[in-house]
Specification:
Length: about 425
């Protein structure tokens, strides 16, 4: 039970949950999942706080479970508590190669400094602006750019429950921007690929006044060029043509952008497929297998020269040794991002994907990200993924999985032939 593993690692005193969540028209009950995790946990918390939602009321255990609304009705203001800048603020779990989650620790001082700085330098927002990060609040983007950064900067932040499609339609993003006069919007490429699949001509965009929107930011995964080109094209018809579409790259471990187009410092020319340049504080290099700096255009491991800038993880929760082994041991003096890519002759960084996403076919190192980019360029393709499978002759061979756009009428044989060609 993944939740139990995290509970046992963090050893929390209190667990807070909702009674349920909503996935399109499906109600997902959370409390039974929590109860099952507590049954197998070695260090179950003594108190569970439950926000009872009308869609599914949770069964409560007397003495252990507490109703959120009842507690809030009895609550009184609490004074702030002084902490050291290096004291932990939160733990956010991310996947580990060993199967055990890694508890990324975020400190207080550096985190606040970096996020406040990024709101202007990266996102070009000012106090009083309306900022929306269309993310799960439990993801690092939600922590950094729904909760902390906008409020530190004096911005209005939007908290949204729903999907980019079927809430109620593929115009949900445009509706939100129009209704709340959002100035800066940040989401993941997957979200817009879902929108593109259901509304490829962006007809729903034309129904809304998005004149408040100044910039669209994308991160969380590689921004494939077809999605970038589609967004750039449809936004030409917005009330204010030429809304910048900005790709940027960062990690749970860093808490803010490693590379971006610095819209609040000096916007740079866009190179499709690149999140542009390292942000201030990051010395990003690309190293080969023996630790030498790669020549421009050569693929290698993306690393960050130490020391890391503010907000980056100081360690893993209760596991300093794993922190060193995971991030600092392969290239002494560098932080290993786990991503592979290139730096071109102009200093632009191109992130091709996790090092695990690079497959070896008959001695040739091939990026599944590059293959996904080619497949995604087919006009009938809405979503795609490429992975490697074992092959007796060539070591590995790539296998592609494709989802077609709605309304496409093409045979499987023809589609396969065109994609392989």
């Amino acid at each position: 039970n993944e939740l139990a593993v995290r509970i046992d690692d963090a050893k929390p005193k209190v667990l807070v949950t909702g009674s349920c969540g909503i996935e399109f028209t499906k109600i997902i009950e959370y409390k039974p999942l929590v109860d099952k995790a507590l049954e197998v946990s070695k260090f179950p918390p003594e108190n569970i706080v439950v926000l009872q939602r009308p869609q599914a009321k949770a069964t409560m255990q007397s003495g252990r479970d507490h109703d959120w609304n009842e507690l809030m009705s009895q609550a009184s203001p609490a004074d702030p508590v002084s902490l050291d800048a290096t004291d932990p603020l939160y733990i956010l779990y991310t996947s580990g190669t060993t199967g055990l989650p890694k508890g990324v620790v975020r400190d207080n001082g550096g985190h606040a400094v970096a996020l406040k700085y990024s709101m202007k330098a990266v996102y070009n927002t000012d106090p009083g602006d309306v900022y929306w990060a269309g993310s799960d609040v439990g993801w690092v983007v939600g922590h950094s750019y729904i909760v902390y950064a906008p409020l530190l900067h004096g911005c209005t932040t939007i908290v949204y429950e729903g999907k980019p499609v079927r809430t109620p339609d593929a115009g949900a993003f445009w509706r939100m921007i129009a209704e709340h006069k959002i100035n800066t919007f940040f989401t993941a490429p997957t979200a817009f690929r879902a929108v593109k699949k259901e509304d490829p001509e962006a007809k729903l965009l034309k129904q809304y006044d998005i004149s408040s929107l100044r910039t669209l930011f994308l991160a969380g995964e590689r921004l494939d060029p077809p999605t970038y080109e589609w967004l750039t094209e449809i936004l030409k018809e917005a009330p204010q043509p030429g809304i910048p579409v900005v790709d940027h790259w960062w990690q749970t471990e860093t808490g803010w952008a490693i590379c971006s187009n610095p819209m609040g410092i000096e916007p740079q020319p866009v190179k499709n497929g690149s999140p542009t340049f390292p942000m201030p504080g990051y010395n990003v290099q690309v190293l080969d297998e023996v630790g030498e700096i790669c020549k421009p255009g050569e693929t290698g491991n993306i690393v960050i020269h130490l020391p890391l800038p503010p907000s980056c993880l100081p360690t893993l929760w209760n596991d300093d040794e794993r922190f060193k082994q995971s991030y600092l041991s392969q290239y002494p003096g560098y932080y290993l991002t786990g991503d592979e890519g290139i730096k071109d002759e102009d200093g632009y960084i191109f992130v091709m994907g996790r090092t695990d996403d690079v497959i070896n076919v008959a001695g040739h190192r091939l990026s599944t990200g590059e293959m996904e980019e080619l497949i995604a360029g087919h006009p009938a393709v809405a979503e795609c993924a490429v992975t490697g499978i074992d092959d007796e002759l060539r070591g590995q061979v790539p296998v592609g999985f494709v989802v077609l756009k709605d309304g496409i009428d093409i045979s499987q044989d023809q589609m396969q032939e065109e994609l392989i060609a």
